[in-house]
Amino acid sequence: MIQGKKVIVVLPAYNAGKTLERTVAAIPREGVDDIILVDDASRDETVRVARSLGLGEVLVHPRNSGYGANQKTCYRAALGRGADIVVMLHPDYQYDPRLIPAMAGMVASGIYGIVLASRILGSGSTGALAGGMPWWKYVANRALTAFQNLLTGAKLSEYHTGYRAYSAAALRKIPFLANSDDFVFDNQLLVQAVAAGVPIGEVSCPTRYEPESSSISFARSVRYGLGVLATTFAFRAWRWGLARPRFLAFSAGDFVAGGGGAEDPVAREQVVHERDRARGEDL
Q: Does the predicted TM-score (pTM) go above 0.70?
């Protein structure tokens, strides 16, 4: 725990078998109460490695559902286990897990509902380009961030990091179940946070782009970029009262504590988890 708050780290995994062990080994256990991994039907040894590491819980999607769907399962599982603070960390060893206590501490202070580990804030040897980020991704990151800051009124250094800490209250305030099951989920969640008035803080985080680290292709990056633009325009239209996009429908039932809305992915996947654990099988 940190300041009396239960901290759970969630790892949304897909084909992370080569980097998972290093990622978990680098997570500071002091202050971290539990670790949950959700596997999105990986084709490698991710599940076997995860179970060998003695994590608090390993959930397995029976089919590949997408990055956003993975996170929905992560957050519902963490909140179901009583988390006060949820830290989402990619298990591809691209981000430094040693920042977990700092990020969780900022959330535990009550000042921030969300804390982002920004690859852009660093400079010199800790900068994004020094860590191996391709120049075209860096340029796209900066351009999309500037565009979103302009239209949302926020002042973030980046919206695209895969390393974040959330308070349980923030996750329950945001209707993230309405978000995409694809990569734009992350971006929609931050735009929802801005719309809901959730305070967002940032810390500088070095990055590592290694051969084993996950990275979406150029084509999928373009699709993600278009999704970011669509999300931002939808926010501006919502702010002006011109549209009511579902992911900004705060009166709907797409909250984690809501009675309606999207299907509970944890309840669905838990059957798979319990069945496989009982059989002692490695998927």
A: yes
